[in-house]
Amino acid sequence: MKKLILFFMMALWFSGCAWFETSHEMEKTAEQLVSEGSSAFAAGDYKDAVKAYTDLKDWYPFSKYAILAELKIADAHYELEAYDEAIFAYEEFENMHPKNEAVPYIIYRIGLCWFNRLDSIDRDHAPAKNSLTQFHRLIDQFPESEYAQKAEKHIKICVDSLSKHELYVANFYMKTEKYKAALKRYEYLIENYPDSEESKQALNKIPRCRELANKK
């Protein structure tokens, strides 16, 4: 019985400490947390910025600064190159505030999160495809936005990366004598990237590839 009483006393003591600590921390006002987050962000201390803005969002969810905190958390993750966390935060912002004026910026940043992960043509091409999807979505939904104009130059790079990847894969199949697979890739390349330099190369390779494929 004594052990049980002692257990409850310790539990109450710990919970009291936790309550005191939380109460002490929450002595910071929303304005103070905004100031802390802004100062940390400006200084490049993005982890501290995330903490300050997260505290603001958690402690003062109905504050006029809460939406700003959500956006700056995503931006801080982006600056830290924590792109998965940034995408999650940006998408959460868009889902919660679909009519907010920052949505074009949000879509652009999601596109950049993928764009910044573009790799060599022999690697995974998902970043190029995903960034292209976001940039096209931005242009379709907000054609007059300044961010739509910025997206245009990134689209060309994405398309170039994807066409080079398709040619790389098609050539690989050709070299390994998988002619039917190579033919499909060459045809796909021509159909989807008709204006690319890679498309012209594919056109030159198709006759020989089709000939070899028919022999098998």
TrEMBL record:
It comes from the Bacteria. The keyword Ligase does not apply. Residues 1-20 form the signal peptide. InterPro entries: BamD, BamD-like, TPR-like_helical_dom_sf. Keywords: Cell outer membrane, Lipoprotein, Membrane, Signal. The keyword Signal applies. Gene3D superfamilies: Tetratricopeptide repeat domain. Residues 27-204 form the Outer membrane lipoprotein BamD-like domain. It holds the Pfam family YfiO. HAMAP family: OM_assembly_BamD (MF_00922). This is Putative DNA uptake lipoprotein. It comes from Desulfobacula toluolica (strain DSM 7467 / Tol2).
